[in-house]
Amino acid sequence: MSGGKLVKILLKTRVSRYLEWKAIDGTYVVQNKEGGFFSKGGIKIAKVPVTPKEALASDLMGMLEKRRCQKFMEYMQNFEEDKPKTYDGIKLDQPAKLMFEKFGLETNTIDFLGHAVALYNDESFMNKTALEVIRKVQLYMDSMGRYGNSPFIYPIYGLGGIPEGFSRISAVNGGTFMLNTDIDEILYEDGKVVGVKGKEGVANAPLVICDPTYALKCKLDNRVKFV
């Protein structure tokens, strides 16, 4: 996602300058004879509408449904979490299905909004809170047009370019990359982290940043602080 956390991290750390990106041409869904999506028997391919204007021009919906979807998109554009006036009577802690019902959206429209816009891979989004689904839809909409006509961008030379970019900026700043190295223990002195230990030896470090699962794998005690 152009506006997602990963892209923000790459920009913040300046790793992005070592990467070349391409915007994905577009996002499409396949509609089958029964009107559902993502079926092998699909007969219609249509672009996912993510703006009020695209909603009115979309082939995925009938004329009346286009207008309802347009109103939903306008609501997503105007919604601000810190401004209750923009809630328009929607309770943010209620199930998302009630929010969809308020706009009178049909099942097929809810289907592509949940799967192709909010990017849920099952029907669980219907029971998520309205706020969670709104955030997902807004992320998609905010990412649209940042770097092209799609919310998605991809490294030209593949995802392997991302860790390679981090290794380059690490080297520039005096860092060292140790590949294929298992960490067996986090070392302490006087209650403070001083490094990590593996089969290849000890790497000294005043700070260890890792996913909690790595720390648990090392069988650490309560001296570890998860941030």
CATH topology of the largest domain: Guanine Nucleotide Dissociation Inhibitor, domain 1
Q: What class would the helix/strand composition place it in?
A: alpha+beta
Query: Helix fraction?
Result: 25-40%
The main pleated sheet reads as: 3 strands, antiparallel
Provide the low-confidence segments as ranges. Answer: 35-40
CATH H level, superfamily name of the largest domain: Guanine Nucleotide Dissociation Inhibitor, domain 1
Tell me, briefly, the overall form. elongated
What is the string of helix and strand elements? HEEEHHHHHEHEEEH
Name the average pLDDT. Answer: 84
CATH architecture descriptor name of the largest domain:
Orthogonal Bundle
The CATH class of the largest domain turns out to be: Mainly Alpha
Q: Report the portion of residues in β strands.
A: 15-25%
Give structural notes.
Helix 4 (96-102) packs across helix 6. This protein has 2 domains: 25-151, Orthogonal Bundle (Guanine Nucleotide Dissociation Inhibitor, domain 1); 178-227, no CATH class. A 3-stranded antiparallel β-sheet has the order 5-6-7. It has 227 residues and is an alpha+beta fold. The chain has helices at residues 5-12, 52-57, 63-78, 96-102, 107-117, 130-143, 161-172, 212-217; strands spanning 21-23, 28-32, 42-47, 153-155, 183-189, 192-198, 201-204. The longest helix is centred in the first third of the chain and has 16 residues, at 63-78. It contains 8 helices and 7 strands. 35% of the residues lie in helices and 15% in strands. The model is unreliable at 35-40 (pLDDT under 50).
